[in-house]
């Protein structure tokens, strides 16, 4: 029996008699990221970066100069996973700041969640020049959209392979880990308590998205279904949806069409009337 099957079996059995204990254990595992080393193809970009420390110890990497673009990676991700996009932005004359999310990389913390990701974006933005764009992958994309509801200001936002509704992802994880019904409910409640926000509020259908944006998602994404991108697009009036046929959840970050679409969006902002950007 594989270790995952053993865990599922344990959760399914013990979760009936001790739902809180099992839910608490799964909550900790769900919010504790692993530290995964960069791949060889990320190392040249890492060598060209400048490490900067923002307030509260938040760590980031910086490249280039010019109008500021802020990047946030996904769960257990790294800034250098955006390598192709970062190179394209720098060559186009933008300055890029890519954060290590809380409990990731050089940033402090042992646990993280989408609300902490969003607050990290707010903290970074408070120390940076006005943002041309915020770009996030997966949980980073969800946190970028949430951050706009908490006061983040940017001329545009790019969401890559992001979920539209956090509650759906929590339920999917709980079922995947074999939690019985009562333990699933306790798990979600514990996540909400730790994050400090009801999961039902973390839904783009409830957001006011009054800025231009781009949604990028691969049809063959097995982690976050493409239907999540369609839901974000439906809720976000001033958004463009780029459908990528292949790329999965992470390889999409290296897709040339992503780079082209981001640069096109930024070019449109540059030529837009000031009143349109301000609105």
Relevant terms:
alpha/beta; disordered C terminus; 279 residues; Rossmann fold; 8 strands; 8-stranded mixed sheet
Strand order of the largest sheet: 1-2-4-3-5-6-7-8
| Superfamily (CATH H level) name of the largest domain | Alpha/Beta hydrolase fold, catalytic domain
Q: Regions with pLDDT < 50 over 5+ consecutive residues? A: 274-279
Q: CATH top level of the largest domain?
A: Alpha Beta
Estimated share of beta-strand residues: 15-25%
**Any idea what the shape is?**
globular
Order of helices and strands: HHHEEEHEHEHEHHEHEHH
Cα end-to-end separation = 57 Å
Mean pLDDT reading:
93
Helix content: 40-55%
* CATH architecture type of the largest domain: 3-Layer(aba) Sandwich
Topology, element by element:
Elements: H1 3-17, H2 19-31, H3 43-47, E1 50-53, E2 59-63, E3 68-72, H4 83-91, E4 95-99, H5 114-127, E5 131-137, H6 139-149, E6 154-160, H7 166-176, H8 181-195, E7 213-218, H9 226-235, E8 239-244, H10 256-271, H11 274-278
Parallel strand pairs: 3-4, 3-5, 5-6, 6-7, 7-8
Antiparallel strand pairs: 1-2, 2-4
Helix pairs in contact: 1-2, 2-8, 4-10, 5-6, 7-8
Short description:
GO terms for molecular function: hydrolase activity. The protein has helices at residues 3-17, 19-31, 43-47, 83-91, 114-127, 139-149, 166-176, 181-195, 226-235, 256-271, 274-278; strands spanning 50-53, 59-63, 68-72, 95-99, 131-137, 154-160, 213-218, 239-244.
Question: Describe it for me?
Answer:
The protein has helices spanning 3-17, 19-31, 43-47, 83-91, 114-127, 139-149, 166-176, 181-195, 226-235, 256-271, 274-278; strands at 50-53, 59-63, 68-72, 95-99, 131-137, 154-160, 213-218, 239-244. With 279 residues, the protein is an alpha/beta fold. The protein folds into 2 domains: 1-32 and 166-201, no CATH class; 50-164 and 209-279, Rossmann fold (3-Layer(aba) Sandwich). Strands 1-2-4-3-5-6-7-8 form an 8-stranded mixed beta sheet, with helices on both faces. Helix 2 (19-31) packs across helix 8 (181-195), helix 4 (83-91) packs parallel to helix 10 and helix 7 crosses helix 8 (181-195). The protein starts with a helix and ends with a helix.
